[in-house]
Predict the structure of Integral membrane protein (Ytp1), putative.
Amino acid sequence: MGILDLRGALVALLLASSVVAHGGHESVPEGAAVSKDPIDSTLWIHMILMGFTFGIIFPLGMVLGIVRSRWHVPLQIVGTVIAVVAYFLGHAHKGRQFGKNVHASFANLLMLMLVVQVVIGLYLKLHLSKGIHGRIRRFFVVLHGVLGKAMPIVSWTQMLFGGIAANGFCQGDHLGQCLAHFIMGSAFIAYGIMLTILLLVGQYWLRRTGRSQEFFDSLVIAAWGCVNTFTEHRWGGPWVHNDLQHTTMGIVWWCAGLLGIWMSRKRNGRPKRNLIPAIVILLTGYAMSAHPQTLMISTMIHSIFGYTLMAAGFTRIIEIAFVLKDKNTVSLDGSDPNSFQYLPPFLLYASGFLFMGATEEQMQLLHDAGITHVSYVLILYSIAFILFLFVNILLHIYAVHAWPNSAKPSAHSRSSSTTDPVQDSTFINGHARSASETQQVHDAEAFELQGLISDEEDEDVPGNRNHVMGPRKAEDEESAPLVGKEASSA
């Protein structure tokens, strides 16, 4: 009953606050989305707390929940308390007032998701398994996981709505191009995040599917191309503005996507890498770099966006063809990617932020404020760096809990068949060993080598032709988590 009372109280508070949220509309000028008043400190605190909670605490809590960390529940409780406080601060502010907008409406849905998530989490924490609880527990476990993994996506959407509502953007004739920029920009960032996940922790899943990464990339590209082909132009009406360019880009996407799907398998049905998705990204960047604009700053931002996207496609081609040489990973277990492999995902992050920051209203605002495109591009790249860092931190937390052995100093000793003597004389983060420490390492290696040679001489006698290193090599291959599982599945 306590849980039901808590849920009822939270729902009542949400409904009451939604009524309060409708106040203040009379101060908004006719035909405008926001008043001309500045944003007050209360609303700034609301935005900072909400961004911290839904942008950092809840994604971190999601990862801790996946790895079943004891810090999952305390962190989620702290995040929920901050979110509830920030929610009411958003309805208690003075200063700038807002008309009816999607951010205010979507906030109620987001908080309702949070309430359901908290209630289910508290129910599961009671560990009730007798009677009907045993039959419905599995359903609530799945629902709790789905809501938790969907929360970052919904939170991202709400934060975008918040930025749009705060400035009164995407109104009237600007709505169409505004949606295109934010949807496509978010898609590029999501693609970069997926590439990062597959690069760092997703190789075993990819091998289990029996498909190459380009199969899934090409499938999404083909589907997205079909949507763009029939939605970028109002059929039956005149071709205006950039309708033709957007439609032809959609045609290229689904044509290339179908080719990429076909080329993602060998004759024997085994998965095969290909360059088609990278070429599509490169062509899209080329088209966007020459996109005609009305303002000079908008032209420059779109050009840099196009060049960044072209660089993402070009570096992806280099990665597949020359770094990986059509393989899935550089190391045996996929836990030690080449440093060059981080470049294509990051460039997709940067491309997404550049495109989301290039709407007509944003460009007009920058033009009126006298801000140069160089300063703006550096700010957007800085945001891309921060997001890339945060995603890598989350994946690191997941990896060290999912595969504890991979975090040990000797974890990558079998990942590479060759060793670099310069790297052998350094510690983590590039700190060099002293001459005496290096000599100790070399002496130890010489001692081990001498022992192996003596063992080999003892074993190499008539009646025993088995080489001592033979079974050791097989044992090492079995100990590699991905290779061993792949061999057993084959």
In short: The chain is about 70% helix and 0% strand. Confidence is low (pLDDT under 50) at residues 6-23, 415-437, 443-449, 451-490.
